[in-house]
Design brief:
six-stranded parallel beta sheet; three-stranded mixed beta sheet; N-(1-d-carboxylethyl)-l-norvaline Dehydrogenase, domain 2; 2 domains; 13 helices; Rossmann fold; alpha/beta
């Protein structure tokens, strides 16, 4: 079993995953942003100044990119790693890119003798750093066997939903429908609490103790309260991520001829927030669309 893994993409999820893996494995991190490389070094994660350099000493790489465009650039751009990878390498994609994109990437990599493990993650940065993510996997058994030690180190819940890339993305699409709608609902609920003159922090605590509790309310609620009180919360999950993710949800629903009215309304809310200039801000900024 390989004890070395390259982590390509050291953003909001990639860096905490690299930090978690570094407690058990030798990790080489890469990100095109020098500030992210510096943050990784400060977290005692070894780094490479190039993606090719990061994968040159291992045949296993975890890719934590924002979207399909970043994945394509990382693999096949002018400095792409696909041509530099040795045959029999294994790529683990943890990002949400959609089932069709994952299947297409797997076919193209297979032509070069490279395996793809489709393993999108859910849980946020704090759970990533503590190895408590939910990871849904779609992969051939031989590729899963290579990736499993790393995935188990990152997860409290690891489920295998299929034996081919794309299956993990299908599960994550369902997951993101719920997450996107839950965040939008939390924004509406706390905005209403504010309009009704309730103490926001007390209300959030009370909601979390009752039937209305949810992971997203507990996770995003404090940041939504900060937004409502005029403070700028830290950016832990960008608004434009859910523009992307709910776009994947609604496209998948259309392909299946399934009506998803709640997902469609939530998608429009995130699009409105992005159009208002909040795309790079925390997704709790969605509440500003309701209260501006």
């Amino acid at each position: 079993m390989s004890r070395t893994i390259a982590v390509l993409g050291l953003g909001a999820m990639g860096l905490p995953m690299a930090k978690s893996l570094a407690t058990k494995f030798h990790v080489i991190g890469y990100d095109p942003d020098p500030e992210r490389l510096c943050a990784a070094e400060q977290a005692c994660v070894a780094v490479s100044e190039t993606a090719v350099g990061a994968v040159s000493i291992t045949n296993v790489a975890l890719l934590a990119v924002r979207d399909q465009a970043q994945l394509d650039s990382l693999l096949y751009g002018t400095k792409g790693i696909a041509r530099a990878l040795p045959s029999a390498s294994t790529m683990i994609i943890t990002s949400t890119i959609g089932a069709d994109a994952a299947a297409a990437a797997a076919r193209r990599l297979h032509e070069s003798g490279i395996g793809l493990v489709d393993a999108p993650v859910s849980g946020g940065p704090a759970r990533a750093e503590h190895g408590e993510l939910l990871i849904a996997v779609g992969a051939a058994p031989d590729q899963l066997a290579i990736a499993r030690p790393f995935l188990e180190a990152l997860s409290s819940t690891l489920i295998v939903v299929g034996d081919h890339p794309g299956a993990g993305q299908a599960f994550k699409t369902v997951n993101q429908l719920l997450c996107g709608v839950h965040i939008a609902a939390a924004c509406e609920a706390l905005a209403l609490a504010d309009k009704l003159g309730l103490d926001l922090r007390q209300t959030l605590d009370a909601l979390g103790a009752g039937a209305a509790a949810s992971f997203m309310l507990a996770d995003r609620g404090p940041r939504i309260v900060q937004e409502l009180l005029g403070a700028a919360p830290p950016v832990l999950s960008r608004t434009d991520i859910f523009v992307k993710d709910l776009g994947i949800v609604t496209r998948a629903a259309k392909q299946g001829e399934l009506p998803t009215p709640l997902a469609a309304v939530a998608e429009q809310s995130y699009l409105l927030a992005q159009a208002a200039g909040h795309g790079a801000e925390d997704d709790s900024s969605l509440v500003r669309i309701l209260t501006r």
